């Protein structure tokens, strides 16, 4: 029996780049698809939001002279590319999926609608929700918070390159220690960057817990669904 019935899985665009550091690493993409199929076979209803930082990040573009709105729109398109790639990999793994977009771009993807998304989840489809919120100045973290709340997910699973929330960045500070459990208020008070402030506040105010874990280790997603303590739970 899976620990959660319906989840919102937030995947990092940077992680999708794998060892290459940019673009889409097919090996990493297929690993993700296998992990997702594993929990889909357990009967879990899966909504997914993927970042686009492996292709283009709007905020970084703005720092290099891009118009911020256009830069963010480019970032939205990057998330659609990643979503199509994951959908293709899931199909190859024998797992039915549907790509929905926050801005109209049929026939590339279906225009996002909460009720259609939930209906697809209940029918056993993996729903990949791309394009962020459809608005500039919002990150894909905020997009994943919004979609998780809308589809009434039990939890947001934030797949990252690290195995949880630490007192400091463990990739930079070897003395950083890991939290197994932490509240949203502690996240604010300690100024820990689990997600951006808007996304964190949305989850806090709507009672959507976040579980941070390392998605880049094959099998970890299934371990989370089986209740193994391999990450950090952020909650009210």
Structural description of this entry:
By secondary structure, this protein is α/β, with parallel strands linked by helices. It has helices at 13-16, 26-40, 58-63, 68-92, 114-122, 140-150, 184-189, 197-205, 220-225; strands at residues 6-11, 45-50, 97-101, 110-111, 126-130, 155-160, 165-166, 178-179, 181-183, 210-214, 232-235. Helix 2 (26-40) crosses helix 4 and helix 6 (140-150) runs parallel beside helix 8. The protein is globular. It starts with 5 loop residues before the first strand and ends with a strand. The relative contact order is 0.17.
Chain-wise SSE layout:
Layout: E1 6-11, H1 13-16, H2 26-40, E2 45-50, H3 58-63, H4 68-92, E3 97-101, E4 110-111, H5 114-122, E5 126-130, H6 140-150, E6 155-160, E7 165-166, E8 178-179, E9 181-183, H7 184-189, H8 197-205, E10 210-214, H9 220-225, E11 232-235
Helix pairs in contact: 2-4, 6-8
Element-level helix/strand string: EHHEHHEEHEHEEEEHHEHE
Main sheet attributes: strand count, strand direction, barrel closure: 9 strands, mixed
| Tertiary shape | globular
The radius of gyration over CA amounts to 17 Å
For the biggest β-sheet, the strand order reads 4-3-5-2-1-6-10-11-9
For the termini, the CA-CA separation is 25 Å
Helix/sheet category: alpha/beta
Poorly predicted runs are none
DSSP strand content: 15-25%
Q: How much helical structure, as a percent, in the residues?
A: 25-40%
* Number of beta-strand segments: 11
Tally of contiguous helical segments: 9
Mean pLDDT: 93
């Amino acid at each position: 029996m899976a620990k959660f019935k319906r989840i919102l899985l937030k995947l990092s665009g940077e992680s999708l780049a794998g060892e290459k550091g940019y673009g889409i690493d097919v090996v990493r993409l297929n690993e993700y698809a296998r992990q997702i199929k594993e929990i889909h076979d357990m009967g879990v209803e899966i909504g997914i939001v993927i970042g686009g930082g492996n292709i283009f990040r709007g905020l970084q573009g703005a720092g290099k002279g891009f118009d911020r709105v256009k830069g963010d729109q480019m970032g939205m398109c990057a998330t659609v590319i990643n979503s199509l790639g994951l959908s293709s990999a899931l199909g190859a793994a024998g797992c039915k999926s549907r790509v929905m977009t926050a801005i109209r771009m049929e026939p590339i993807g279906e225009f996002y609608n909460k009720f259609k998304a939930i209906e697809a989840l209940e029918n056993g489809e993996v729903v990949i929700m791309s394009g962020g919120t459809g608005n500039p100045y919002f990150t894909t973290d905020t997009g994943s918070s919004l979609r998780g709340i809308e589809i009434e997910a039990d939890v947001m699973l934030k797949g990252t390159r690290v195995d949880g929330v630490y007192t400091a960045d463990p990739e930079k500070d070897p003395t950083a220690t890991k939290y197994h459990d932490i509240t949203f208020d502690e996240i604010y008070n300690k100024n820990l960057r689990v997600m951006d402030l808007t996304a964190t506040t949305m989850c806090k105010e709507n009672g959507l817990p976040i579980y941070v874990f390392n998605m880049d280790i094959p099998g970890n997603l299934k371990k989370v669904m089986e209740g193994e303590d391999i990450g950090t739970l952020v909650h009210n």
